[in-house]
Design brief:
Radius of gyration: 16 Å
Distance between the termini: 52 Å
Structural class: mainly alpha
Strand content: under 5%
Number of strands: 0
Length: 194
Amino acid sequence: MNIIAVAAVLSTLIAIYSGYPYIKSVLNGKTRPHQLSWLVFTIMNGMVFFAQYLAGGRVSTLVSLTFFIYSSIIFVLSFSKGTRNTSKADKSLFIFALVAMIIWALTKNNALAIWLTLLIDLAATTMTILKVRKHPDSEDPTPWFYGALAYVFACITLFHVHYGVLWVRPIYGLVCDAAIVAFIYFFRSQRAHK
């Protein structure tokens, strides 16, 4: 088995594992997923998977498919276990995400879709960070850490591909998930010092 295949398997397994503690935490009532965020994550992860696949990605898209399924499950759980508290900022970010999705639907350009998902993800991630700022214990950092690790291996699956649009999502996913982990710890430490 070559390094690309090993990285694809590890990326997918870690992505699957990253969902387990999050789903368990939601079911136990420790984590309250922000419903609007997870709606955006679900749509965005679906866009990412299909756009990457249609742009020529293969094993590197397995992590995106895994996160699409995982986001869908969290979104469904958010109806009974999540929070619907939405601020004006949340609503503005959601509208921003919808506009980006509509642009992709109208252009049907896969490369554009991948770039637009960065904007969509930025909106959903910002909603999650704003929620964590208000409620630092509402998110477990472990799943986000494993998500970042899964993206590390997704990047490895692309070592044989020239730098280009297929690299955008894994690199951004790595940065984004790592940022959420950092914000969780930052807001928890701020609260501890009050």
